[in-house]
Amino acid sequence: MLELTSKRSLGGSALLRFLLNGIALFLSLFAFIAADKAYGASTEPSCSTPAVIFCDDFENEILPGGWQDGYNPVLHTITSDLTNVYKGGKALQATYPARSDGGWLTRWFMPGYDHAFARLYVKFEPGWQCGINCTKIFAFYGNRIDNRWSGFGKAGTRPSGTDWFYAALVTLNWYRQPDPGELIFYSYFPEMTQAPDGMYWGNFFFQKDPREAIQPGRWYCLELELQANKPGTRDGFQRMWIDGVFKGESLNMRWRDTTDVRINALQLTFSGEVAVAKRVWIDNLVVSTQKIGCMADTPPAVPTELLVQ
């Protein structure tokens, strides 16, 4: 009877291997989930909440780290120069060579969300000089849930409502100085306005007064909120905060006509040529489904005057 029982059960070594393999599989899955939900920035309290999508404080990172596209070792490095670190001991440094840009870094979170926030700290090097255009800083992409690339490579074109949308915070020096100018929304959506050259370049939406230029040499806390509309309505919006102060919104946005297009990528987008070689620093990035804030920031008010059709 004892011999029969042993034949029907796992041997000691086999059982041990089975248990170890199970533990290894569990740890691998846990690590994958943890990396997807909060890569880096583990010391920031918001990054341990269920609402977090992605975090990076660049403290323990060897690039590209959690970034899935765009890494260029010539342009993107980790600095430990504390004069260019917002918090902790390290930050991301993006270099813009003269008459060129600083590339990009992209992180996807498929299949995506209908409502998301992104917050980061940014500092421009003193003496910043814009080239033909100033620079973008960061952007949300709305891609199709079955094609994470559906919104990429589409500059100058208009979304159809079933393929992509795009919402970014960028700098503009046309009306405010010094360079890189003021912070504005730069957006692609199905009802966007055509440019004089016949192309569909990102439409501008300005912050509310007083509109002030970004001052190189100091850190700014920037936060972007994006709400995708319900298909068939214009209840989408975008909002911005600078140093925790609400600075603007554009309401009644029709971003999409199907829920197959969702907010599912965040890009640090260092586009826009500079006249002379310069650097920009990024630190303490958080992407979440809830308001993140800077320090003791307050939750957002419920948006009003939304148009539902």
Written description of the protein model:
The structure is a single chain. Strand 10 (220-227) and strand 11 form a beta hairpin. Helices cover 11% and strands 35% of the residues. Strands 1, 2, 3, 5, 10, 11, 12 and 14 form an eight-stranded antiparallel beta sheet that branches. It has helices at residues 2-8, 12-38; strands at 52-56, 76-79, 91-96, 104-113, 115-124, 136-144, 164-172, 182-188, 203-206, 220-227, 236-242, 245-253, 261-269, 278-288. It has 309 residues and is mainly beta.
SSE arrangement:
Elements: H1 2-8, H2 12-38, E1 52-56, E2 76-79, E3 91-96, E4 104-113, E5 115-124, E6 136-144, E7 164-172, E8 182-188, E9 203-206, E10 220-227, E11 236-242, E12 245-253, E13 261-269, E14 278-288
Antiparallel strand pairs: 1-14, 2-3, 3-14, 4-13, 5-10, 5-14, 6-7, 6-13, 7-8, 8-9, 10-11, 11-12
Gyration radius from CA atoms, angstroms: 22 Å
pLDDT < 50 runs, ≥5 residues: 1-10, 23-41
The residue fraction in helices comes out at: 10-25%
- What does the largest sheet look like? 8 strands, antiparallel
The average pLDDT score comes to 87
- Topology as a string of helices (H) and strands (E): HHEEEEEEEEEEEEEE
Percent of residues in β-strands: 25-35%
Gross morphology is globular
The number of strands is: 14
| Count of DSSP H/I helices | 2
First-to-last CA distance? 76 Å
